[in-house]
Design goal:
With 100 residues, this protein is mainly β. The protein is built from one helix and nine strands. The strands form three sheets. It has a four-stranded mixed sheet. A three-stranded antiparallel sheet has the order 1-9-8, with no helix packed on it. A two-stranded antiparallel ribbon has the order 6-7. The longest helix has 4 residues. It starts with a strand and ends in a 6-residue tail after the last strand.
């Protein structure tokens, strides 16, 4: 599944994120992680930068200060098990690898 990334506005509660929507979590001006709604099943969870390695680049400051363009170590969704990835402008969820 591949959906365009939608950046949630600051006042929006993370429990209301729609599939493919993300919300940055900051601590004193540094990135802590992202709340992500899985583009496959819609399950919402926070993923920490230290664990997955979010890749960001500057974005249009009128829209959003940073754009999520990749994830170094794609985390599995906590509900469907699909691997959550990012590419410029899109959030992806690939089916989990099945062991033979």
């Amino acid at each position: 599944m591949k959906l365009p990334i939608q950046y949630a506005p600051a006042p929006k509660c993370v429990r209301e994120l729609d599939p493919g929507e993300v919300k940055r979590t900051l601590g004193r001006s540094y990135l802590v992680g992202y709340n992500i709604a899985c583009p496959g099943c819609g399950w919402r969870a926070i993923y920490l930068h230290e664990e997955v390695g979010f890749i960001e680049e500057p974005a249009d400051p009128k829209v959003f200060p940073k754009a999520l363009v990749g994830i170094e170590r794609p985390p599995p969704c906590m509900k469907c098990g699909g691997l959550i990835g990012a590419e410029p402008g899109f959030l992806t969820c690939s089916p989990p690898a099945v062991a033979p």
